[in-house]
Amino acid sequence: MRIWQLEPQAGSLQVQPALIADLLASITEPDSALLPRAILNLVCGEIEAINCAVFLLPGGSQPWLIGHAEIPERYHVRSVGGSYADSYYQRDMGLQHALRLSREGAGTTMLLHQTASDIHDREYRQRCYDEVDTRQRFAVVRPINGRDSLMVGIYRSSAAMSQADLEFLSHTARWVGEAAVQRLRARPPAAVAGEGALLELAAQRQVRLSERERQVLLAMIQGRTLPETAQSLGVALTSVVTYRGRALAKLGLASRHDLLRAVVEEVGALAGRARESGPAHVQGLSA
Fold this sequence. Notes:
CATH class of the largest domain: Alpha Beta
Order of helices and strands: EHHEEHHEHEEHHHHHHEE
Number of helices: 11
CATH superfamily of the largest domain: Transcription factor LuxR-like, autoinducer-binding domain
CATH architecture of the largest domain: 2-Layer Sandwich
Helix content: 40-55%
CATH topology of the largest domain: Beta-Lactamase
Strand content: 15-25%
Shape: globular
Number of domains: 2
Distance between the termini: 30 Å
Low-confidence stretches: 277-287
């Protein structure tokens, strides 16, 4: 495993202009898969890679998978990204070390390269690497502020990355990290801004949600199933169904679709108010 600080790169990097154009265009597009897809296309012009995932890493809480793309009809690993965010993030010692170094360096962007053999936690390695034929990760750990960071992970299944491969990825790291930050600024995903938008929605509708009702609605926004929600909250499935029905009724909504639509609308309203008042803040995340 190797962790090092992003430094200014000497020399020039030859890439197709269309790949840079796609990277820039993906920043404002509504489809969250377009940024990781553009990153994957950019690096696959020079090296072999199988998937790319972008995670928001809020300080003191669980990460959010905010974008993912993979080689078409070859790897299907989005569920692994969700498992990583829910269960294995704290067990990712390589990333945790990179985050500590970034904070100690007053917000320095760090680069991380590791192989599956570097991971000593067997369960984590099996679920997030072995089961999806992933052997290596190159990660860009980009601070947003003094608390929160973004991680862009680029994964491959073949032989070890050469020095030339790592130099190429290091050259592109600044573009990749900045594109991820700008994507978060331009289009904060509903899952990230969901709690703030949910509370604002309840306030506007003059609704008082209980703590359990709020937790269940937030789990729905995040895409969790009812059994997953029951397990994470440590309550019976029937209780989750009751909290869901009661909370939706309070808000005057009939379904998860109605809830997501209302939250997305509120996210847009929050972002608009933030732009009018100054620097953007979404759920306490300085963008």
